[in-house]
Write the structure tokens for this entry.
Amino acid sequence: MLEIRDFHVKFNSRSREAVGGISFTIQDGEILGLVGESGSGKSVTAMSIAGLLPRRQCTYSGDILLDGQDLLHADRSVLRTLHGRRIGVVFQEPMSAMNPLLTVGEQVGEVLRVHTSLSKAERREKVLSAMADVELPEPEVLYGRYPHELSGGQLQRAMIAAAIIIEPSLLLLDEPTTALDVTIQAQILALLRRLNREKGISQLFISHNLAVVRKLCSRVAVMQRGLLVECGDTDDIFFHPSHPYTKNLIAAIPVREHRMQAAAGPFADAKEAGRAVSSPEAGRGAAPDSAVSSSEAGRGAALDSVIEVSSPSSAAGIPAANGTLSKGGE
């Protein structure tokens, strides 16, 4: 469905290419995760697909094709016909992306005003339906409210409603859960999985959170300094990484044992030592290794148990990479 071939971007103000000749594809109904450190070229790639590349401020080459149609070199008038209808975009900060002077309902329905000939009443019905689809409470009430009157999670749902209201074939999500707490993040991820499953919308999901990518995406592409260093199935990338940078990213995922030690504070080791000394086992000559056996077990746990979202997310029912749901459901 989407094909990127040998894509290069160099901004006039920089000496190094922001994107240095990457190539990848997204198939119909697929969710591809794009990961990498800040400045690796993820957002530049997504904005180029959306036709938001500032062409006068950079040089670019290669091909970006959506169902065979050229996006990179297309005229702006052509791109305007694709925005919203074929390509939807969800930005990282919904409060910054939304106009504070327009109501939420007006902004969700703007794409209908641009791309359809529906009457105002018909547009309103479509907007309310889209807001209900993304599980916004009381759509009729929120329709007339302004962005500052909604919570962060509600604003992100409204942004998703605006992006999917005409059911585009491709949804670009630029770190849509970064500014959300873990419980709301879990709900948004469950929503994205449901939209993909029920409506067949392909998604390019950009994130720093490898645990989120592991749960949501069927394939993963890894970028470093503008280059695509590795791309493959999610399980292959996480359990059998081949590039050193990918290995370092996965090694940096916090282990549960380390999180527990950090929460316990600097007295955790002393407290543990005190328990070991006062234990009856110590008097009976227990082996010193027994005091750290649980720690060793934690370090030897499988990667799949390491890269899970914390308990509020699990309770909310984030779908696993194979499409199954945790016990909490959607």
